[in-house]
Structure formats: C-alpha cells, structure tokens
Design goal:
394 residues; alpha+beta; 5-stranded mixed beta sheet; 8% strand; rod-shaped
Length: 394
Amino acid sequence: MARQGLDKATVDRLVRRAQTEFAYAYFTRTALMLLVNLVIIDALIWANIGATEAKIWMGLVIILLLIRTSIYLRYRRSAQDNPKLTVSWNRLFMSGALSTTLLIGVVSVFAYPHFEVVHKTIFLFVTAGLTAGALTVLALHISYYVTYILIPLAPVIIYSFMDPSVEVQMIGIVALVYVMTMTFHARRFNRILIDSLYYRFQSDALAEQLRSTNKDLSSENQELHQISTTDELTEVYNRRYFNKRFEEIWADHRRENTILAGLMIDVDYFKAYNDTYGHLKGDDVLRDIAQSIHQVIWRPRDFIARFGGEEFIVLLPTTDISGANALAERIHSTIKEINIEHDGNPDTARITVSIGVATIMPRTTDSPDIFINKLDKALYVAKSQGRNRTFIGE
C-alpha cells in the first residue's frame, strides 16, 4: 500500500503514542477484571497445590498490580506528549503486561500438571480470557502479543499432549487451536489497526494542512479585497468600489423609502499646490485630507471614497440635510487644524476644501447619477462662491 504525506518515523511516533494512551486507558478499565481472573487462578493453586503456594503467588500478584498501578498514576501526571517519554512509558506498560503473563506462566509450568482435569479446563478458559482481552492493546506490536499468549499457554499445550488422558489431550488441542487462531487474528488486527491509525493521522495532517491553506487563502482574499477596494494613495475606498457600494446603498434607500445624504469634497487650488511644492507633497496632502475626513466620520455605515484626483465623496445613509451640513463643518474645522501651508491659495495661504452637500429620497424611476449630479452642482457653486466653504444643493 503506497503511503504519502507523513514519513515513516512520524507515523511510528504517532502510532506509539496512540498505543501508549490506549494501553493505559485499557489498564484502568480492565484492572478489576484482571484481578478477578488472577484470584480464580490462585483458587486453583490453593485447591490443587496448597495454601502456602497460593498465598505466595497471590502476594506476588498484589505486588505486581501495585507496581503497575503506581506506573499508571505516574503516567497520568507526566508530560504525555513528550516523544522520548512516550517510548519509556510504552516499555513500562509492556513490561508490566509481560510480568503478569510470566506469573501465569509459572503456574502453567509448575502447577498446571498437578491440576485435576476440570481445573485444567478452568485454567485454560481463564487464561484464554486474559490473553483475548489483551489483543486490542498488544496487537499493535505483534511480537509482544505472541509472547504474551505463548508464555502461559505453551506449557499447557506441551503438558497436555504428554498426558496419556484423552480428556487432557483434548484440552491441549483446544489450547493449540486457540493460540493459532489468536495469532492469526492478532496479525490481521495489527494490519487493520496500523492502517487505521495511519489514515487517522494522515487525515489529521491533511485537515491541518487544509486549515492552514484556508487560513492563508482567507488572508490572501482579504489582501486582494483590500487591494481591489482601496485607493492605494489615500487608503480610503476607491472609485470602483464606490460605484458598487453606491448602487447597493441606493437600492436599500429606494426600497425602504429613506433619505440619503452626501458630500462632494474638493481640495482648493490643488493644481497650484502641485506646481509649487511638487507632486510628492501633493500626495501627502491628499493622504492628510483623506484621514481628516475619515476621522470625523464615526458611524460604521457612513462611506468615504476617493472620487478622482483631489475629489472625495461621502455617503451618509439615513441622514438629513442638517446632519450632513454639520459633518461638512467638522471637516472644515479638522482640515484647518492640520494647518498645511499653501502659498498658491490666494485667500488663506493654507490648504482648504470646498464641499457640496445634497440629500435625496431615491425613487423607483430615479437613477443614482441624479444624486451625483446634485452633489457635483453643489460643489461647483461652493467653488464659484469663493472656495473654502460648504454649499447645500437643492
């Protein structure tokens, strides 16, 4: 099976981490059942070998379970995402599991031959239950699982075939078939589990890559939107985006039958300023004017754009003429405060603006151009009356 995207070392590390997490979670869910099965084995030792041997064996079981529980508690408090520690925790768990099966293996070697037939059958079923339950955890490393199952059951198979009793030999056959079956399933389960974990991690990696790509695309889209809608020099909206938004705002006001106000703003004697101070200084003036207008427009729905050259336009949704005129006066005051020298202005020797103000109630038969013409005419009158003033159009 061809695998791309994640390298083998990364896959191995992630699989090992997943196995370790699952193994310790498995221990908490099965610790009580493990103890019950070990108590049953201890009862078999007591009944067939003796109380002393049973007590010694159970003492070893309790010590081992306490050690494994201590390891589990330390694991829960540790930095579980540390790759180096993951290897150590995994080995500790496997060592604990193999130590448990070694204790059962001791019973298989030294006690099983002395069990009665019925007790041998019980021992086989208890051991089979323990080894079957460990399949989901240990099958990630097939060698561990084969070792885990052979330690207690290999002696059972050997002793059973050596016994002249047919009943005991049948137990050996059942044990052999069980070991072969579980080994087959363990190998199959190993492949399925490894592949499923791989695809899970591959999917997570692709999902993360997709999120990162989407984030980059979103950032690029925002940047493209900024470029396509913003005037590069003044950093307010450009004429193209104004035309789009104006049609939308116009349609909203026509549908809702509400008033729309606007301001057309022109920098006075701007050509003379460029001729006197140069175009770079002229660009600075346009930026300062744009920011001065922008800082007095406080409502999110109000809209400012560079209309062309030294002209700016402001749309004020649901604003009457008095509100629009008040804004125009604030713009005059703000520009006066920035106090930009302009020797080409014969009136004030400072940068000033002329503003045309108008309002309209858009009707179904009206075109947006009507409003632009009203603003343009009002601006023309303001300039013709001496500049540095506001004129309110009809």
